[in-house]
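User: quick one
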Amino acid sequence: MIQETEDQPYLLLADDSEEDADLTARVLRGGKLIEHVVHFYDGAQLLDYVFSSSFRAHPLLLLLDLDMPKTHGLEVLRKMKGDGDKKHIPVVVMSGCSDEGVIKQTYELGVNGFVRKHTQFEKFKEEILHVGEFWLKTNYYPGFWNSRQV
Amino acid sequence: MLSEVDKRIIVGFAMALVLLVITIFFSYRNMSQLRNVTLEVTHTHDVLFRIEEIYSQLLEIESNKRGFLLYHDQSFDEAKLAGIETIYLHLDTLRDLIGGNGAQTQRFDTLQRLISQRIALSQDIVNDSLAPRVPSRSTDYSLRGKRLTDAIKRIAGEMKNDERDLLNGKMRLVNASHRQFYQLYVAFGLVILLIFIFVVYIIRARVQERIATEDFLRRRSDEIKDLYDNAPCGYHSVDGDGNFIEINNTLLSWLGYSKDEVLHKMNFSDFLSENEKEVFLDNFDRFKAEGVASSVEFEMLRKDGTTFPIILNATAVYDGRGGFVKDRATIFDISLRKEAEDKARFLNAEMEAFSYSVSHDLRAPLRSIDSYTKIIAEEYRDKFDDEGQRLINTVLKNSARMARLIDDLLDFSRVGRKELIKSSFSMKLLVQSVLEEMEIGANDASKAINNQIDLDAWGDKSTLRQVWHNLISNAVKYSSKTPRTEIDFGSYADPSGHIFFIRDHGVGFDMAYYDKLFGVFQRLHSSREYDGTGVGLALTQRIVTKHGGEIWAESQPNQGSTFYFSLPLKD
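Assistant: Done. Structure below.
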């Protein structure tokens, strides 16, 4: 699952739906926004990786689904944003639910963006491309610059 | 203050008293009259007796004179002199008795004169008999004697008659006055009796009324006490320190204590947990100053250590100088309400979880279907013929429809849970803004919009926006097959509040199916004719009902429809 490509920028993706993950990656790659996508099926797997010694620092972005088995997206967010080293990694939540309360919770935990997964492919595609254009091509965050220089 | 009845009693007694005094007065007068009459009778008998006596003494003198003339016995002369003395004594007495009576006095004077003459004549006869005899004078003497005696007899008779007449006259007068007195006496007696009967009747009625009133008050007081003690809510009063001074049976049974254990022995805070004790003490002083505590919730401690939730309302009682005396408090056991609230909360949470899972779990596969089908259609375009393309489009159309259904359903459930934030605003402007948002109106020659709403609304603007959105899209949708779309908006006031309506001139519907109009997933037209999920009107109704209003419609096939909804005014 984890593609070890030491020197290339990469995206962390956590989504229990294989199709959603596949579509996301497909759109991003089709838009030439990223090549390396590291996908986890649940929050636990993601956290295991992020807090392991093999974690490759400075992913461009974590695209996080909320409803996942074992560890919920909100829990992942809490752990990431509560950690001194990992809190600067941008996290954009992509969820099928756009409930006001849920959105508020993610922002209280320090999310960097919230995107609703649209049912219609055209809109879904458009949203993913918007996210990619900004977070993968435009954005900088602390420590990221050095990593890109490598 | 004297009551009307008391006044009557007093007046009755006063009247009886006055009548009694009058009766006594008349009795006294009558008695003295009777005494006077008795004296008069004695007087008359005395007068008659004296006259008789004088007359008989006169005859006695005459017979003594004759005796002396025959026998020349000195004793006759002495007896005659004694008789004369007696006559004068009687005459003196008679004069005194007659007193002021003019006629009698005249007669008396005549009588006295005649008697004197008669006595003088007798003396002359005696003197003559002692002197030498003169026969002629003897006859003369006896004639004069007889004339005088006759005159005396006549005068005495007149005097006696007069005296008797006088007495009879007085007796008649007295009898008449007696009769009057007895009539008056009987009449007064009757009146006094009647007054007494009347007064006794009033007093009796008064006493009975008082007994009845006391009875009524006792029953009332029992009823009130029963209501206080056994009402289905707790009543109690505490003094300025929070100690119980009154408590009803209902509250006692809830708490599990007896009245003796609580009254003047326990404080309200004794029934609270440590945390709530502080809340109570903090608020009690404020309550004493403000006088009202409304809907304060506490958890009350029973004797057995268990607790139950209550709601407390209280008002303060102050004395004349504004000092706090006690409170009057009601307590409702809200265990059932709490349970219901918990259950409602639980159900709401379940509903939320369900909605969330619907939104997430149903959308995810749809996204896959839609996305992969589109990828196929794009990337494998060359490999499909026309029929293949049509089939793919059908899949896409249905997935889109399902997505819309899910979205509408979610909206529907969300509106039920959403809290309304009400404000007052211009409905005309809201409709205007919805029309602009939907790009209907000014620049669209195919649609005639006539917004005549002139009443303001009181409600939640965001959900009412959705109401108009749904109603306007329906009006547009069902007018799409008529050459020109005409939509009228209006409003009017009604006892139930303000009523707003939207009228189109479209296809309309058959009122026979009216009961299906506002049902979820109920449609009066097939989706082939007019696209739709059947949620829009159900959602609209749900919003209006939540506002406390009503929604209804009128229509005829091919004549257009009018949808009305009412919103209550701000209370």
